[in-house]
From TrEMBL:
<dbReference type="GO" id="GO:0046872">
    <property type="term" value="F:metal ion binding"/>
</dbReference>
<keyword id="KW-0001">2Fe-2S</keyword>
<feature type="domain" description="2Fe-2S ferredoxin-type">
    <location>
        <begin position="3"/>
        <end position="79"/>
    </location>
</feature>
<keyword id="KW-0560">Oxidoreductase</keyword>
<comment type="pathway">
    <text>Alkaloid degradation; nicotine degradation.</text>
</comment>
<dbReference type="GO" id="GO:0016491">
    <property type="term" value="F:oxidoreductase activity"/>
</dbReference>
<keyword id="KW-0479">Metal-binding</keyword>
<dbReference type="InterPro" id="IPR051452">
    <property type="entry name" value="Diverse_Oxidoreductases"/>
</dbReference>
<dbReference type="Pfam" id="PF00111">
    <property type="entry name" value="Fer2"/>
</dbReference>
<dbReference type="InterPro" id="IPR012675">
    <property type="entry name" value="Beta-grasp_dom_sf"/>
</dbReference>
<protein>
    <submittedName>
        <fullName>(2Fe-2S)-binding protein</fullName>
    </submittedName>
</protein>
<dbReference type="InterPro" id="IPR002888">
    <property type="entry name" value="2Fe-2S-bd"/>
</dbReference>
<keyword id="KW-0411">Iron-sulfur</keyword>
<dbReference type="Pfam" id="PF01799">
    <property type="entry name" value="Fer2_2"/>
</dbReference>
<keyword id="KW-0408">Iron</keyword>
<dbReference type="InterPro" id="IPR036010">
    <property type="entry name" value="2Fe-2S_ferredoxin-like_sf"/>
</dbReference>
<dbReference type="InterPro" id="IPR001041">
    <property type="entry name" value="2Fe-2S_ferredoxin-type"/>
</dbReference>
Length: 158
């Protein structure tokens, strides 16, 4: 039996009728149509389903919607602000940090959270922050370079 709940997603209040056994990933993709959050392993191992909960990267495949009722949920669709891409989205595109693109939403959200807490992260901090997001295509070098470029861009825009 579905239960009507209110979620705060990408700055908007959303009322949605959810099945109690559905994960946040399923609710975002199937009920709210936010398909940017990727469905990967369902085991919490790949990071493709990463979203931000109150600014912290969380695996939506392991999270129940009832756990985040009073939280601010940000998906990849909500990373841009006032029609402007996040600096990390810009640098990912410019530097070719995305290849197949499947891990990209999770990488971007984890990277954006890192830049909020560490405006000029070291490579070690990047490796730690992105460790939960697996990429089979890039070897991570371009991703780290994109994070560094985004940090510089954010610094210049301040």
């Amino acid at each position: 039996m579905r239960q009507l709940i209110t979620l705060h997603v990408n700055g908007e209040r959303k009322e949605v009728a959810v099945l109690p056994h559905h994960t946040l990933l399923e609710v975002l993709r199937e009920d709210l149509g936010l398909i940017g959050t990727k469905h990967g392993c369902e085991l919490g191992e790949c990071g493709a389903c990463t979203v931000l909960i109150d600014g912290t990267p969380v695996l939506s495949c392991l999270t129940l919607p009832l756990e985040v009722l009073n939280s601010k949920i940000t998906t990849i669709e909500g990373l841009e602000h006032n029609g402007q891409l996040h600096p990390l989205q810009e640098t990912f595109a410019e530097l070719g940090a995305a290849q197949c693109g499947y891990c990209t939403p999770g990488m971007l959200l984890s990277g954006a959270a890192l830049l909020e807490t560490h405006p000029e992260p070291t490579r070690e901090q990047m490796k730690e922050a992105l460790a939960g997001n697996l990429c089979r295509c890039t070897g991570y070098t371009k991703i780290y370079e994109a994070v560094e470029a985004a940090a510089q861009r954010k610094k210049e825009r301040r």
